[in-house]
Write a structure and sequence with these properties.
Elements lengths: L1 E5 L4 H13 L4 E6 L11 H4 L4 E5 L5 H11 L3 E4 L6 H6 L2 H20 L4 E7 L22 H20 L3 E6 L1 E3 L8 H10 L4 E4 L5 E6 H14 L5 E4 L4 E3 H12 L6 E4 L16 H4 L9 H14 L1 H8 L2 H15 L4
Parallel strand pairs: 1-2, 1-4, 2-3, 4-5, 5-6, 6-10, 7-9, 8-12
Antiparallel strand pairs: 9-11
Helix pairs in contact: 1-8, 5-6, 7-9, 9-11
The chain binds nicotinamide-adenine-dinucleotide and thymidine-5'-diphosphate (TYD).
């Protein structure tokens, strides 16, 4: 297998490359990544040491880049992680989300068709279903996204459906729950709060903090993606979650314990997502489990391990949080509510 991993310098893509290197000793991997604010070569320093991995800087929406790699590396499979991935940023400015999450997916699908690749897997999200107060989404549930991010992901996700129906393009789609684990960019709930608590800074809980997310460890998500890549049926969608529903407040409690901090560092702020804040995510995963996959990471143990990782790997995240672009985003998004606690 000659695999093209897009967005491989980001959180989940980099962990997926690690999994493939171990699980498929014959696989050769090409990573294409635009190295946006969320992509860092420091995230893949270890995998770039392998002679089975090559890195190509570039945007997925650039057909010259994608077609050039497919030809030079004789690519047989694509797994697409490349995306603008943060809801809060999409509320500030959503143009780049449409470019990457919709148009970029179109370019990858066209290349898969043109070069008759064996398979493309598109990594989508449970957020395309929108919010569910009771019960759980199945792969047949309606697509009802509520933020510019989730709507852009829904656009890419549905392009995959349309391509498989219109052109029999061999594409499969996965919809994952909220991921946690090492190398997550420190703007998402768990790494943002862990890194701030390590530094003794206040953490901003949106609204009442009782929103529910279904958390899945990044390596369980990656093993699910790999299972679907090889065993999933063309044109089908597969949910990847761990039935692990937690309120944000429960997560904060564990983060406080693991960093040795107390409630005085928790600041409840008016919800900056307003009506766009999904209350609860929940999915069924029987269809994916029927392919022989199951999640294996105990949430509480591995959440605590993740905090330990952020304590130990300050060499990885400090250069990221110290750059002006990161601080500008924090000021722009949280300035009005965190004020002097920024
Ligand atoms: P991330 O933001 O950490 O990484 C995204 C990567 O894509 C970065 O390396 C970035 O440089 C790269 N990228 C962005 N635009 C690009 C472009 N136009 N061309 C090439 N590369 C580009 O995101 P993540 O958390 O690793 O998420 C990966 C994928 O998984 C995304 O598609 C996301 O929607 C999906 N997903 C994420 C979660 C989650 O909890 N993080 C859950 C379900 C699904
Ligand atoms: P996030 O990690 O951004 O993921 P998503 O929006 O994809 O679910 O947010 C997870 C939850 O945490 C969500 O309910 C919003 C909340 N949250 C906060 O309360 N404060 C924060 O500073 C952040 C980043 C998130």
């Amino acid at each position: 297998m000659n695999l093209l991993v897009t967005g491989g310098a980001g959180f989940i893509g980099s962990n997926y490359v690690r999994l493939v290197l171990k699980k498929h000793p014959q696989a050769r991997i090409s990573i294409v990544d635009a190295l946006t604010y969320a992509g860092n070569l420091s995230t893949i320093r270890d995998v770039l040491a392998s002679d089975r991995v090559k890195f190509f800087p570039g945007h997925i929406q650039d057909p010259c880049v994608i077609e050039g790699i497919i030809k030079s590396e004789q690519i047989s499979h694509i797994v697409n992680f490349a995306a603008e991935s943060h809801n809060d940023r999409s509320l500030l400015d959503s143009g780049s989300f449409i470019q990457t999450d919709v148009y970029g997916v179109h370019i990858l699908l066209e290349a898969t068709r043109k070069f008759k690749l064996e398979r493309m897997l598109h990594v989508s999200t449970d957020e395309v279903y929108g919010s569910i107060l009771e019960g759980a989404f199945t792969e047949q549930s309606p697509i009802e996204p509520n933020t510019p991010y989730s709507a852009s992901k829904a656009g890419g996700d549905l392009q995959c459906r349309a391509h498989s129906i219109s052109y029999q393009t061999p594409v499969v789609v996965t919809r994952g729950g909220n991921n946690y684990g090492p190398f997550q960019y420190p703007e998402k709930l768990i790494p943002f709060f862990a890194t701030r608590l390590i530094d003794g800074k206040k953490v901003p809980v949106y609204g009442d903090g009782n929103q529910v997310r279904e958390w899945v460890h990044v390596m369980d998500h990656c093993s699910g993606i790999d299972t679907v890549l090889h065993a999933g049926k063309v044109g089908e969608v597969y949910n990847i979650g761990d039935s692990n529903e937690r309120r944000n407040n429960e997560i904060v409690k564990i983060l406080l314990e693991e960093t040795g901090r107390d409630e005085s560092l928790v600041k409840s702020i008016p919800d900056p997502r307003k009506g766009a804040h999904d209350r609860r995510y929940s999915m069924t995963t029987e269809k994916t489990q029927a392919l022989g996959w199951k999640p294996e990471h105990d949430f509480e143990k591995y959440l605590r391990d993740t905090v330990k990782w952020y304590k130990e790997r300050q060499d990885w995240w400090r250069p990221i949080t110290e750059i002006p672009a990161f601080q500008d985003f924090i000021k722009r998004f949280y300035g009005p509510t965190l004020g002097s606690d920024l």
